[in-house]
Amino acid sequence: MSRNLSPEHPSTPPVGSRFERGCATFEHVFGLPAKTFLDALADVSPDFARHVMEWEFADVYSRPALSLRERELVVLAACAALGATGQGPLRLHVGAALRSGLTQEAIVETFIQVGFAAGMPAALLAMQTAKDVFASVVSAEPRA
């Protein structure tokens, strides 16, 4: 089994501690330093931040049955259905979904499906978050 971090093979390299592998995967998925996330929780619960890195990003993201794109679709749907559309989770994962190779159209289609499964208000909030992220990605692109 290949152990690289391509969208088709989301596995983390089998080197270092679980925490180090989790941090490396986090950085690959989000394109952000793991330290930013860790520092944000340092005064509240550094243990929670460590668990996220070790369990979610080192253990779960390295499982071979789902690609990174598929994982991001699942997370987008779950965040939208739960109403986690505010500051962090959905916004971060819309960006991660784009980084994984999902198109804006696929992300929007995911939220349309969420609307029928979890309700239109949840889908509308998710769409607005996605729209904001899409706009920030476009404005961050270098101009020719």
TrEMBL record:
InterPro entries: 4CMD/NDH-1_regulator, AhpD-like, CMD-like. One of its GO terms (molecular function) is peroxiredoxin activity. Residues 46-131 form the Carboxymuconolactone decarboxylase-like domain. Pfam families: CMD. This is Carboxymuconolactone decarboxylase-like domain-containing protein. It comes from Paraburkholderia ginsengiterrae.
